[in-house]
Amino acid sequence: MNSVSSLLFPLGLLLAPFLFGLINRVKAMFGGRKGRPLLQMYFDLRKLLSKGAVYSRTTSWVFRAGPIVSLVAVLAALTLMPWAGAPALVSFDGDAILFVYLLALGRVGLILAALDTGSAFEGMGASREAAFSTLAEPALLLLLLALAHGTQSLSLSGMFAPGGMPGENLDMAVLLLASVGLFILALLENCRIPFDDPNTHLELTMIHEVMVLDHSGPDLALIEFGSAVKFWALGALLMNVLVQGLAVGQGAAAVIGLGIMFGLALAVGVVESTMARLRLTTVPRLIAMAVSCAVLSVILVWI
User: Fold this and answer.
1) pTM for the full model?
2) pLDDT tens digits for 235-253?
3) What angle do the packed helices 250-274 and 172-189 form, to 10 degrees?
4) Is-contact 62 112, C-beta < 8 A?
């Protein structure tokens, strides 16, 4: 672990909520509004942490443990993510597989917490979340498999290391397909438009938000912060793919990587401003596009 790696984790924790501020500001600009402050999420988290939590008498310890499990899982996943050629805080052979299942563990924690409420409404959201995640996980695994085969490494740091860059071993078609697939998965995994609307309160269209309606105070702060960290981690995965296709030094790649992360937030803001949320029956078709990109990537690296 070098000095750059030691800064990756706190950098992600510090800047992750800022990306949501950028998304909201872009949406406000498209709507002709001034919009909320860029640091609004930091203010919201501080307010939630200062409040008390309210628990229903029908819930058990599972409901209280859900937000903690979700946040710890995404924080552990973030420690495995390298940054533009710099190794991750934690790196070992096979950590790419662990990254996928840590994200899944965080999702399971929230699903169990939603089911623990005994509410049919939250159970509906939990079932939708579980159904769509079963389609997204194979796509993410296949994309990582394509990168792993091309770089002969099952470690995320090994895949994106300067000596084993995908750009040196994989052609641009694979990198492009992986980028498109990861962008779609980033929108899906973070419950953004066109898959879900984080600001909606229409029960027939809600997926993720309906699962966390009963959480309040510090528990809700953990969920919201965990969502921001998850967005940062998946965005960093996409950023690493894009940066490794550039023939630049590690220092320049690190700066460009930060710009790509901000650019990703701006792109998500544009998507959410120009697209409507898809009907639930249409969502699997867009997920199928990510799966198709993953399958084509695997085929291209094997032929």
Assistant:
1) 0.91
2) 999 998 888 767 677 778 8
3) 50
4) yes
